[in-house]
Amino acid sequence: MKSMKALFVIAALTVSSLAMATGGGDKNFNRMEASRKVSMEAFQVAQKQKAEAAVAQSKAKAANSTNG
């Protein structure tokens, strides 16, 4: 009888862990992480372009003030 109870407890724990593992949490986390990475790269590219535009604009102003 004790071995039957032990087997039942082991089976219950195994089934519950399998049920939790199939919830798809890992897939969602990986998808969110990939989306975060893509958005951060896009943000960095936009910031770099903004900085380059500011530098180009300041150089154009400097060139215009020396020519003027």
From TrEMBL:
It comes from the Bacteria. Keywords: Signal. The keyword Signal applies. Residues 1-21 form the signal peptide. The keyword Signal applies. This is Uncharacterized protein. It comes from Pseudomonas laurylsulfativorans.
